[in-house]
Design a protein that fits this description.
binds adenosine-5'-diphosphate; Heat Shock Protein 90; Helix Hairpins; alpha+beta; Beta-Lactamase; 12 strands
């Protein structure tokens, strides 16, 4: 890429230099031409006025020749050299294009290449007006050595090459620096993607710019953090499931071990077998729960117009034996006959899970444990609230409670209550599939309010 840039810059600069140098040389030649034509005309006029004074004419030609730094010849109408400021050609005949043209009445100029030199040659006729008629009595021929002009052009060319090389160097330097800076975030992104693909989830790229690339890095960092959270949740989930499965398995092992030692009577066998059965049931419940939560993600919802007030009442009826057993008072107040498009069975399951939690996480220190369920219409929404005065959730844990496998394990009660950290994941899944919204307000030791907003 850099070579292409360099070649483009070099080609552009070369074309520019050639045009510049040509123009410069042409201007120099034209200016010299104008100056020499002026000299030739002055020499012709002076010769015309003093043609009988040979010495004066020679001195005049020598002086103009020195001034113009050129050879000046005056020839007669036959082309014979009358005056030469270098004295070499006096008396010899000159026959060239310029002289022939001038003896025919025309002025002209041309550049000739003689050996390794360039020579500018120009001539003007000497016209005498006698008795009203013009008579060509000779011509002035000036030869100018263009070495000085060519040297100037060469000097300029050398200067331009130096400036060009310097310019090219700096422009390449700038290009290298700019390209390096431009590709820096891209290189950082490539490294980031490599790290993620190597499994280093949560890898963060330092962002320096606020442009498009900066936004891309932001998005990458967000993706990386999300992947890391998902991975952490997955580990937590596997951890808690393994833990949940390990506990009944260990119990079963211990019970079987105890039974196999010594001679036990039938009642002991029965008692131990009952315990083993209980533990097996616990494992079965967990496996069912897991299968259900996986099934839920794939299941298709059957949406119909349903009376959500009735669904609530039916669910409360279902859970009442459990709440009564645990001395938790359940109360429902709110609008009757609110019709909502939903999957009735899934909504029942969702409410059941929330009520189950409210009862499960009741505060044993409180005498009057309650769960208040309210359903109201607000603007074009139905608002369902499930409020309890249970143990509440610490602020730092609230954001995680909908994550699969998350359980609040600190606190005496929480760790001892049976659960797999899946109930609220199921709740959230059902809410999301309906396009509804769920939020939680909770204070430790005071209680929790789960608020569901249902568009009508
Ligand atoms: P599980 O109840 O099986 O542990 P959930 O997904 O239903 O799993 O709940 C996740 C966690 O959220 C629970 O472990 C509990 O700590 C907390 N939680 C849920 N509902 C309540 C509630 N009503 N009161 C207090 N804590 C709750």
């Amino acid at each position: 890429m850099l070579i292409i840039y360099s070649l483009i810059i070099l080609a552009a600069f070369s074309v520019f230099s050639v045009i510049m140098l040509n123009n410069y040389k042409n201007t120099q030649v034209r200016n010299t031409e104008i100056r020499l034509f002026q000299t030739a005309n002055i020499v012709a006029d002076t010769y015309k006025a003093n043609r009988d004074e040979v010495i004066f004419t020679r001195m005049m030609v020598r002086s103009y020749g020195m001034q113009a730094n050129a050879r000046i010849l005056i020839v007669d109408s036959q082309g014979l050299v009358l005056v030469d400021n270098y004295n070499d050609f006096i008396g010899s005949k000159i026959d060239n294009k310029e002289i022939r043209n001038s003896l025919a009445g025309k002025s002209g100029s041309n550049v000739y290449k003689l050996e390794d030199k360039e020579v500018l040659q120009l001539s003007v006729p000497i016209i005498l007006n006698e008795f009203g008629t013009d008579k060509i009595i000779g011509a002035v021929l000036i030869s100018f050595d263009m070495t000085a002009i060519n040297n100037n052009v060469n000097e300029l060319r050398n200067d331009m090459i130096k400036v060009g090389a310097l310019g090219l160097f700096f422009s390449l330097l700038l290009t290298v620096v700019a390209t390096h800076n431009l590709t820096k975030p891209l290189r950082a992104l490539t490294i980031g993607v490599e790290k993620i693909s190597e499994g280093q989830l949560g890898y963060i790229i330092q962002k320096k710019s606020k442009d498009e690339l900066g936004r891309l890095i932001d998005t990458f960092n967000r993706m990386s953090s999300t992947l890391s959270k998902i991975e952490k949740n997955r580990k937590n989930y596997i951890n808690s499931i393994s833990h949940e499965l390990k506990t009944p398995l260990t119990s079963i092992k211990v019970l079987i071990e105890s039974l196999s030692i010594g001679n036990n009577d039938v009642d002991t066998y029965k008692e131990y077998l009952q315990d083993i059965y209980g533990e097996a049931e616990r494992m079965e419940r967990l496996v069912n729960y897991l299968m259900e939560s996986i099934k839920l993600e794939e299941s298709i919802f059957n949406l119909k117009e349903e009376n959500i007030s009735q669904i609530l009442k039916d669910t409360i009826k279902l859970i009442r034996p459990y709440s009564d057993k645990n001395n938790v008072h359940i109360k429902f107040t709110g609008a009757e006959n609110i019709i909502v498009k939903c999957d009735g069975d899934k909504v029942k399951e969702m409410i059941f899970n929330l009520l189950d939690n409210s009862i499960k996480y009741r505060d044993p220190c409180k005498e009057n444990s309650f769960v208040h369920i309210t359903l109201n219409k607000e603007n074009n929404r139905a608002i369902l609230k499930i409020e309890d005065n249970g143990i509440g959730i610490d602020e730092k844990n609230i954001k995680n409670i909908f994550n699969r496998g998350f359980r609040v394990l600190e606190g005496e009660l929480n760790g001892s209550v049976e659960g797999y950290g899946i109930g609220l994941t199921i709740v959230k899944n059902i809410i999301d599939k309906h396009g509804w919204d769920i939020s939680v307000e909770s204070t430790l030791k005071k209680g929790s309010i789960f608020k569901i907003q249902i568009p009508l």
